[in-house]
């Protein structure tokens, strides 16, 4: 696999680190830079909730967590990303949904990382709208995970989640 040499930002580094964990195996629900409970593989496979410590995720960063065999993106959105998501008129959206209906707390967006077209894993912080870009057939999602352009028929799905405290997220 070709590797582009880039000067990684902290966010890029975390992205790369996540890929490395995925390549090694699914033994961990999230890469080790994020302190959290680490249920064993059998527990994860059974679909147990996954708890994530949000305190280590700076604004502008995105992390991936594995839950029920799916990638979950947890984005710590910046004020600019939130503002952009909230400024979009609903009539410009192929699958209209307010940002408020998609983010229980404005600064945290939690979505299932499966493109709603044919199921590829989209790339975060990419695409024309700064959210996700699916390289398989060119779907662009915005910073609320809403489909904006391309063949995907609907917004990125939302997993069940809740905030256990100000700094802990429970997925599932
Ligand atoms: S699977 Fe994502 S655009 Fe086709």
Description:
This protein is an alpha+beta fold. The protein has a single domain, classed as Rieske [2Fe-2S] iron-sulphur domain (Rieske Iron-sulfur Protein, 3-layer Sandwich), CATH 2.102.10. It has 3 helices and 10 strands; from the N terminus they run H-H-E-E-E-H-E-E-E-E-E-E-E. The strands form 3 sheets. A 4-stranded antiparallel sheet has the order 5-6-7-8, with no helix packed on it. A 3-stranded antiparallel sheet has the order 1-10-9, with no helix packed on it. Strands 2-3-4 form a 3-stranded antiparallel sheet. A hairpin with a 4-residue loop joins strand 7 and strand 8. The site of FE2/S2 (inorganic) cluster (FES) has 13 residues, from loops.
List key phrases describing it:
Rieske Iron-sulfur Protein, alpha+beta, 172 residues, 3 helices, binds FE2/S2 (inorganic) cluster, single chain
Terminal Cα separation, in Å?
34 Å
- Which range best describes the helical content: under 10%, 10-25%, 25-40%, 40-55%, 55-70% or over 70%? 10-25%
Which regions are unreliable across 5 or more consecutive residues at pLDDT < 50? 1-39
* Structure annotation, total helices: 3
Bound molecules: FE2/S2 (inorganic) cluster
Beta-strand content estimate: 25-35%
Kindly name the structural category.
alpha+beta
Could you provide a short overview of the structure?
The chain is of the alpha+beta class.
Topology:
Blueprint: H1 10-24, H2 41-45, E1 50-53, E2 62-67, E3 70-76, H3 79-87, E4 108-112, E5 123-124, E6 130-134, E7 139-142, E8 147-149, E9 161-165, E10 168-171
The structure holds FE2/S2 (inorganic) cluster.
């Amino acid at each position: 696999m070709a590797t582009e040499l880039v000067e990684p930002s902290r966010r890029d580094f975390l992205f790369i680190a996540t890929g490395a964990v995925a390549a090694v195996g699914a033994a961990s629900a999230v890469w080790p830079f994020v302190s959290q409970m680490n249920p064993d593989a059998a527990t994860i496979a059974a679909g147990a909730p996954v708890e994530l410590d949000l305190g280590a995720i700076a604004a502008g960063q995105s992390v991936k967590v594995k839950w029920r065999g799916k990638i979950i993106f947890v984005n710590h959105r910046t004020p600019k990303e939130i503002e952009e998501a909230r400024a979009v008129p609903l009539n410009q959206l192929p699958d209209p949904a307010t940002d408020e209906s998609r983010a229980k707390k404005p600064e945290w967006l939690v979505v299932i990382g499966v493109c709603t077209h044919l199921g590829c894993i989209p790339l975060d912080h990419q695409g024309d709208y700064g959210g996700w870009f699916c390289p398989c057939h060119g779907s662009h999602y915005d910073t609320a995970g809403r489909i904006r352009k391309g063949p995907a028929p609907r917004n990125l799905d939302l997993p069940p989640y809740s905030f256990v405290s100000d700094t802990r997220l429970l997925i599932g």
